[in-house]
Design goal:
It contains 16 helices and 15 strands. It has 417 residues and is of the alpha/beta class. The strands form three sheets. It has a seven-stranded mixed β-sheet with strand order 13-12-9-10-11-14-15. Strands 3-2-1-4 form a four-stranded parallel β-sheet, sandwiched between helices. A four-stranded antiparallel β-sheet has the order 5-8-6-7, sandwiched between helices. Strand 12 (253-262) and strand 13 form a beta hairpin. Helix 12 runs antiparallel to helix 13 (330-342), helix 12 (316-327) packs parallel to helix 14 (377-388) and helix 13 runs antiparallel to helix 14. The longest helix has 15 residues, at 57-71.
């Protein structure tokens, strides 16, 4: 099948490209950036320039449908926040002869922004940290109980989220949000912190039925708060909670969330109406990407059993950039690279999921034999740059999310039409 990825810049799109190409699909991608992760791999045959999503989502969709028509794509697969406009305009996508798998827009609206997601989880009785929605600057400035997390409704990759540790910091943030013309009618979410490891939970639904599920723990943090190292988990409680959320919303397509695994069980801290970094799931025996493609093609898919626990994967690029940002010392970057090359320390019995030279199959299927030398270029470039000058790593992480992130103004346009 000819699959056109809605994004070519993000980590999820890069992982999906590897999995789709390994399954025999023809893969191309869309991106406003001339140079992006999906361009630097043999698994993506072409990357097509389109406008950025943030300023005008419908303009992005116009360009996406034009590319899909000219190239003869069969499936437009949402792998980032383009799912918002794709959900709203799914009839238009179908009229263009394209398959896709997106939820009803009414369902997506209930979890797309952080304030709505908090209210939806609260209504359904699903576990999350204690919190409240604050709808005025003065209320936020006088709120006690620090430390707290303050979250604006729309924000990607930790943008729009602040950890506040003192009343004075809270007052300064309130003034800053006011100056940025925050829509106080919609408000901000203020939540108490929760102690425990971060776990990413991922799923695919078909009209409210949970088809595939996976959970993995972030065992090391990389650049920009991303997960540089993961370990697959068996987490029945999170599975049950996510199934309840998807069932209540009649969800169709991919649905992911971040949870904190506390002593009282998992607590939801973020919901993403899309697929997020599916490689650990694949290595654990759960093929979320293939399931999403099948749901797009036929409307449903056979339910998948849960994967194996304990499977370790890593994203070396994020680990190197994260180490450079954390310490700023060449010796620390060199140590990280040495461990990656010798498969020691956190790399012991761990599989590269972002830029693999060869993609190992998780079962009896044959592994890839042709190396993806071009795909390793970002990792190699980051290694050289940070060894020479650790602060140079910032260039590799800045600007990537702007290619696919939704702005508050764009989200407001979509929700009022």
């Amino acid at each position: 099948m000819f699959v056109l990825l809605s994004d070519g810049a993000g980590l999820t799109s890069r992982q999906c490209a590897t999995l789709l190409a390994a399954a025999g699909h023809r893969v191309e991608a869309l991106s406003p950036q001339p140079l992006c992760l999906s361009r630097l791999t043999r698994h993506v045959r072409a990357v097509h320039r389109v406008p950025g999503l943030g300023a005008d989502p419908r303009r992005w969709l116009d360009a996406a449908l034009d590319v899909a028509t000219r190239r003869g794509a069969e499936l437009l697969l949402p792998v980032q926040e383009q799912v918002t406009v794709m959900s709203l305009e799914r009839e238009r996508i179908a009229a263009a002869g394209l398959l896709t798998a997106v939820p009803d827009f009414a369902a997506l609206r209930q979890v797309q922004d952080k304030v709505s997601a908090f209210r939806t989880l609260d209504r359904l009785g699903l576990p999350q940290p204690l919190g409240q929605v604050v709808t005025s600057r003065e209320t936020l400035k006088t709120l006690g109980g620090a430390p707290v997390f303050v979250k604006t409704p729309i924000g990607t990759a930790s943008a729009g989220t602040w950890r506040i540790t003192s009343p004075s910091d809270l007052a300064r943030l309130a003034d800053r949000l006011d100056q940025a013309q925050l829509d106080w009618q919609q408000g901000v979410l203020v939540q108490q912190p929760a102690a425990g490891p971060l776990v990413m939970v991922q799923s695919v639904f078909a009209r409210g039925e949970l088809i595939a599920f996976h959970a993995c723990e972030r065992i090391r943090e990389g650049a920009s708060g991303g997960s540089s190292h993961k370990r697959g988990l068996t987490l029945p409680a999170a599975r049950e909670h996510l199934a309840a959320l998807g069932r209540a919303l009649g969800w169709h397509g991919a649905l992911s969330a971040d949870v904190i695994l506390t002593g009282r069980g998992p607590l939801f801290i973020d919901v993403n109406p899309r697929l997020v970094e599916p490689a650990n799931a694949y290595q654990s025996g759960v093929d979320l990407t293939a399931t999403l493609v099948e749901v797009a093609r036929s409307g449903t898919a056979p339910p998948q059993p849960d994967g194996r626990a304990g499977v370790r994967t890593h994203q070396g690029l994020l680990a190197v950039l994260g180490e450079a940002a954390r310490t700023g010392h060449r010796r620390d970057v060199a140590r990280e690279l040495a461990q990656a090359l010798t498969r020691t320390g956190p790399y012991w019995r761990s599989t590269e999921e972002l830029t693999p030279l060869r993609w190992p199959a998780p079962s009896a299927a044959p592994a890839q034999t042709r190396p993806d030398l071009v795909g390793a270029a970002p990792y190699a470039a980051a290694a050289v740059a940070t060894l020479l000058h650790p602060p140079a790593g910032r260039r590799f992480v800045s600007g990537a999310t702007s290619a696919y992130s939704l702005t508050p103004a764009a989200w407001q346009v979509l929700t009022v039409t």
